């Protein structure tokens, strides 16, 4: 009996394995969420220096000489306060945070609760998707989709950026897997990708022409295009409605509870990601329920 047969014979083992995998990937996603925006900013700076050329060649040389190699693998994770390297045993998802009492083992600076929350969220949702889709190809792709959305949601919440490094591969992967009809047919996926981009692009320009302000960024267009590529154009109205509803509730709560400025910008990516995940799991049922309530 191979591993897939074992998973099919013992579903709880499959779900448990998925949770453990999700916790581990969640730990890596914390690195992606923190480091990818910094890597992008460094790359943009380097491109600007290259474009300006000899005018600031001295500054460019100093930046290159003083810069350290920085990517998703190196340097090793360390405490941002004292710089102490985090050992492997201190990097066990969720458990290490609890054993350390939420503090650095060296300087006792408090560690953000968000790190174990991202790990726990990723682990539990990975297990849920494994249970929801079973031992199928769709489960594997649904889990990849989830991981990308988690990273994008938190990066956007922190920086108001939705990196092309994640959104574009997600879009193309959605189109590729739906050649085989994993979640929808390729025709619906292609129209969904184009429609997702055009819908928010139109909203962006309509809002800008009316108010002179930018209501969202181009990354939002690409994220909705990616969701359309995965789920098909039929679920785009549901995704837009859900994301707008969640965004409105969170925005009002922020104003009432935290006294947030009504004119403050809110990242739209987390709401699109939440809606995209809901649509993946319950989209067809929600669409059928909604259409069933419409007058004949």
Structure description:
The protein is mostly helical. It is built from eleven helices and no strands. Helix 6 packs across helix 11 and helix 7 runs antiparallel to helix 8. The radius of gyration is 22 Å and the shape is globular. The mean pLDDT is 86.
Give the key terms.
296 residues; 11 helices; 71% helix; 0% strand
How many strands appear in the DSSP assignment? 0
The helix content is: over 70%
- Weakly predicted, low-confidence segments: none
Shape call: globular
Rg, alpha carbons: 22 Å
What fraction strand?
Answer: under 5%
* SS field, number of helical segments: 11
Multimeric state of these chains? single chain
Distance between the termini: 53 Å
User: SS-based structural class?
Assistant: mainly alpha
Rounded mean pLDDT is 86
Series of secondary-structure elements, N-terminal to C-terminal: HHHHHHHHHHH
Largest sheet: none
Quick rundown:
By secondary structure, the protein is mostly helical.
